[in-house]
Design brief:
By secondary structure, the chain is α/β, with parallel strands linked by helices. It has 10 helices and 15 strands.
């Protein structure tokens, strides 16, 4: 039986990865930070199948202890301060977790079990002000947020440990991947949850930032399969995981409203742009400049050709199915909230 250690196990990706590894017969360990109230997050439904270890990415001693306890054959580092907007408010904490934290984990592995295989969750945000379209493994990086900069350090330190210590250490440069388990602060889940509330009459409209920002969106469940595949190869390499399709935030919102049975039409430009329900004429979406980033990433679209060819990876969930799943899930959640309130 293989043993796997997952940091960030209670998040979106961590939960789907834990499910996948359990299905494959792994003994799964998950890192948890100590809180006054225990919160299993997205793995609450499988918490009895996971071995939890209290540790912190900023505390190397706790990571060394976690490696000694788990004796992990595979380590998946998904822990991060992952909300881009917050990285401007907490740049130092973001750097401590997303950059130095990666070094701490690599050192813990090197000290305790250097033959263990390590996966680093890199991100398309490292491309930032894109230097080529689409982006692949050879595209130069140009991060545009403290989050992107910190993740770039994590990406390069992983490569450095691979080349310095001959460790099996690799990064998956994952483009935007969403799901029903995405946090409410992220724009995709913010949209689908608001659409559900608008559909059920408990919210008038949703306010968003830059509607022209383009992203390459896939489903987390597909992307965690790629993480596992990265650690099953003969040699460690870095891979872009993406759909090679890009859509604007506006298009995502339009698809979400459609999934809820609401046809919308957009009017105006810039901060004055709105979306109206065609059937009622009511304004259901507005632009709020408070949500604009200090430095915007305008366009992300990844080329997954290398992963498709060498890993045999391919996505199974389309963009429309992703949006439909998220809206359906949020409709069920909001309906339950309404019943509880009554």
């Amino acid at each position: 039986m293989k043993s796997a250690l997952i940091t960030g196990i209670t998040g979106q990706d961590g939960s789907y990865l834990a499910e996948l590894l359990l299905e494959k017969g792994y003994k799964v360990y998950g890192l948890m930070r100590r809180k006054s109230v225990v919160d299993y997050g997205n793995v609450d439904h499988i918490k009895d199948k996971i071995h939890f270890i209290y540790a912190d990415m900023q505390d190397i001693v706790s990571l060394i202890t976690a490696m000694k306890i788990s004796q992990a054959d595979e380590v998946y580092n998904l822990a991060a301060q992952s909300f881009v907007a917050t990285s401007w408010d907490t740049p130092c904490t973001t750097a401590d977790i997303d950059a130095i934290g990666v070094t701490n984990m690599l050192e813990a592995i090197r000290i305790v079990k250097p033959e263990a295989r390590f996966y680093q969750a890199s991100t398309s945000e490292m491309f930032g002000k894109v230097q080529a379209i689409p982006q692949d493994e050879t595209t130069p990086f140009y991060p545009r947020s403290p989050y992107g900069v910190a993740k770039l350090y994590g990406h390069w330190i992983t490569k450095n440990y691979r080349e310095s210590y001959d460790m099996y250490a690799c990064s998956g440069i994952l483009f935007n991947h969403e799901s029903e388990r995405r946090g409410l602060e992220f724009v995709t889940r913010k949209i689908t949850h608001a659409v559900a509330r608008i559909k059920l009459g408990v919210q008038d409209h949703v306010e968003l930032g830059n509607l022209d920002a383009k992203r390459d969106w896939g489903h987390s469940k597909d992307y965690v399969r790629a993480m596992w595949l990265l650690l099953q190869q003969d040699h460690a390499e870095d891979y872009v995981i993406a759909t090679n399709e890009t859509r604007t935030v506006r298009e995502f919102a339009q698809a979400a409203f459609k999934a809820a049975g609401i046809e919308v039409e957009f009017e105006g430009e810039g901060v004055n742009e709105i979306a109206k329900d065609k059937a009622t004429g009511k304004v259901v979406l507005k632009v709020n400049p408070d949500f604009f980033r200090p430095a915007e990433v305008e366009l992300l679209i990844g080329n997954p050709a290398k992963a498709e060819k060498e890993l045999g990876w391919e996505r199974e969930i389309s963009f429309n199915e992703l949006v439909e799943r998220m809206v359906k899930n949020d409709l069920a959640i909001v309906e339950k909230e309404i019943k509880s309130a009554n």
